[in-house]
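[Amino acid chain]
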Amino acid sequence: MNANKLLLPCLFSCILILLVQVCLAQTATIKGQIIDTETRAPIAEATAFIETIGILKETDKNGFFKISDLKAGSYNLLFFAEGYQSINKKVEINDQEVSIEIALEKLKIDLDILEVNASENEAYHLQKLNNVDGFGIYSTRKSEVIPLLNLTANLATNNARQVYKDIAGLNIWESDGGGLQLSIGARGLDPNRTSNFNTRQNGYDISADALGYPESYYTPPLQALERIEIVRGAASLQYGPQFGGLLNFVFKKGGKKPFEFVSENTVGSFGLLNTFNSIGGSKNGLNYYGFVQYKRGNSWRPNAKFEQKTAFASVSKEFSHKFKIGIEFTHTDYLAQQSGGLQDFQFQQDPRQSNRERNWFSVNWNLGALTMDYQISKQTKINNRSFFLSASRQSLGELGAINRPDPLRERDLIRGTFTNFGNETRLLHQYKINDQYTTFLIGARYYQGFTTSDQGDADDGSDANFQFLNPTELETASYVFPSRNASIFVENLFNINEKWSITPGLRFEYINTASEGYYKERVFSGGQVIFEQTFESDKNNSRSFLLAGLGVGYKYREEVELYSNFSQNYRSINFSDLAVVNPNLIVDTLLTDEKGFNIDIGMRGSALRNIIRFDASLFFLSYQDRIGVGEIIISDPSIGEKAVAYRTNIGDARIIGLETYASAIYLNYFKNRVIMLVVLFLSISVYYMVNTQRAVLQLREMMLSSFRLSA
């Protein structure tokens, strides 16, 4: 990318933050020494923790610590060290500097776990990821965490409008009444099956093919989730180059008891039945969790019934405080009847009518993962994830234009299978520069996939019979799509001082996608095939590229942060872009991948003792070489000239927008119990989009042969 394009957003961000710095009020400092109560000896590597703002400071070899840039007020501090009892102390700051001495007593008993719980209203707010969370760096990024424990939503049907309502700027499609598929998009991107996000479950991919076919046909049941993590387009450096960013579903773990059983059963309108049953527990370092879900319903339109079965099991074993290993497996399958679309006048007449009763859709999804965590030292840890997918999706029915009635002839059957394997390894290391903690992250990923796509004739019945009439000689098309992807990514969070942080990063990607197969052009007369021609394709495309990003953060006050981020994005040519299954479609042989970048500038934080939370940001999304379908005129021997669809890089898009969110929580207590809870929230997003459409030339017959081959 041009250096000037990189320099401009970074310079603008720095100027914005410097202007804010001028307005800062005078700050104060807490300093002190932590010592042993009995020996009066200093305690090295003890910790002073300000709970309200989440600041941690370790003591040096002489037991001294210093926390600067605090405003006047009252602070609750927690002091703890390995082998000592922790204590709390309230400190008032009225002067420029306050000095204290803390004496810790040695433990009289052994403690297995020290838990620091958030305030009561924390669970009702939309949250953000910590600057360093698990094995990821999220400082200066626009991130959201949806905690599901106290969420008011219909979890039985995966109601997306209720679950994602707080996230500013999301577009949500609902294509079924049971929440079988999730379709969300951000910042004007296509929501279809969440294809513009890197969709993960417990940190590993769950989509059909992360680069070649990133659509998600499986959505985890909300009743099994602890939280949902969303990181906008700046996630491209750590999780893949997608424009939308990261969407990660985090499952529950087994509780502290050895065994726990939960059963949730829901009935509703239109024949809805959902039963969710889970078990979980932990003992002697072994933690397990699993569930079985069964769901069925008829939806609110005719010809739209569905049935789904999902099962999940996870087991993890902590062999020591340094080494942990876990294994997971997920299975889901569902069968859904599809009502078909409607024309505008039909929708005006009766939006509940259906003109298709022979259309069906089926999914079978199997996911597995093996994870290992190892604490190399106090500052360094490593995580390894291996995962696989064995899955299929099938659509059956009359797939012609909806303005035509169902001719009750043989139906079309489209079958796709996905067999993928991947491994991702991350190493996170924390060190100090000038008494400030710095975090370094490096990771590597290898991904290999094999996808097949077949289309041909099926029977003329009405039931869900997913069988080809001629499986060895398909009437329409048959393709295989092998793919490989390798990447290396590195980031470093530099805490310059108590207020400033900078996070630069790089990601190197190698992608190899290929296609091999054929499609047929057939001409009918009187129900008989009078002409048939087969077009074969065998293509291989390898490319490599480097993505860069830079984030800048500034803590304006203890509870308010300014952040700015720039990150490049990339979208590989999808398998559906390459495959030709229609004689009236031509694919550009010079078709290229899509690329661009995201820029965020925002402010987030809390006020009134965390009663109010807010996040407001401006963004700029540049989407270049967007792939789409135009129309060209070609010569035809029988009719002279005809218009055909032409898939190519049709243009560029620039999207500018404002995303704002604010929430307020009111809790009323009686005898230490909440008797009233009021949650108010406001979510506003405004977009302005500019599309630059490129002209498509009228191609003649002499050029036709070069365009029939896929890139």
Q: What stands out?
A: The chain is about 5% helix and 55% strand. Residues 315 and 350 are 50 Å apart (CA to CA). The helical segments are 3-22, 160-163, 236-239, 344-349, 575-578, 701-708.
